[in-house]
Design a protein that fits this description.
141 residues, mainly alpha, 2 domains, 7 helices
C-alpha cells in the first residue's frame, strides 16, 4: 500500500504497528486511539479504525471497529482505499467467524477474494491472499 507517510494518522498507525511488533500493545492501542482522534476525513477514519480494531478487548468490539473502517472506506470515494479492501473484508470475515457466524464470514471472505487482484505483489499481498484462502477453507460448506 502506498500510504502518504506525511499524513499524521498514517504515521501514528505506523508507530502503533511498530509498538505491536515490539511487544508493547498498550502503547500501540494509545497510538491507534490517537490516530482515531486526529482523523480529518473518511480516508483517515478508515485507516485509524482498521488499526483501532486490532487492539479491542472483545470480538464484538473488534467487529464494530472493522465495520467502522469498512464504512469509511466506502465513504472515501476514491482510489486511496482500493488495495485496502481485501484486508478490510478479510478482517470482517475473521470477526464473523470468531463470533460463530460462518455464513457471514464466508460472504466477507468471498468479497476479499474478489478484491485480491488489487493486492500488491510481495510479502504483504501474499500474506493476505493466504489469509483469504485459509478463511474460505475454514467456512466453506
Amino acid at each position: 500500500m502506498g500510504f502518504d507517510l506525511d499524513n499524521p494518522v498514517v504515521r501514528l498507525c505506523g508507530e502503533g504497528m511498530r509498538a505491536e511488533s515490539e511487544g508493547r500493545p498498550e502503547v500501540a492501542r494509545r497510538l491507534f486511539d490517537q490516530a482515531w482522534a486526529e482523523r480529518a476525513d473518511d480516508f483517515d477514519a478508515c485507516v485509524a479504525a482498521h488499526y483501532v480494531a486490532r487492539q479491542q478487548d472483545s470480538p464484538e468490539e473488534t467487529l464494530l471497529w472493522n465495520a467502522v473502517s469498512l464504512h469509511h472506506a466506502n465513504a472515501t470515494g476514491d482510489e486511496r482505499v482500493i488495495d485496502f479492501y481485501p484486508s478490510l473484508y478479510l478482517n470482517m470475515g475473521a470477526s464473523h467467524e470468531l463470533l460463530g457466524d460462518p455464513d457471514e464470514a464466508a460472504r466477507y471472505f468471498r468479497l476479499a477474494a474478489e478484491h485480491a487482484g488489487d493486492l500488491p505483489a510481495g510479502p504483504y499481498g501474499d500474506m493476505l491472499r493466504r489469509g483469504i484462502a485459509d478463511g474460505l477453507d475454514r467456512v466453506s460448506h
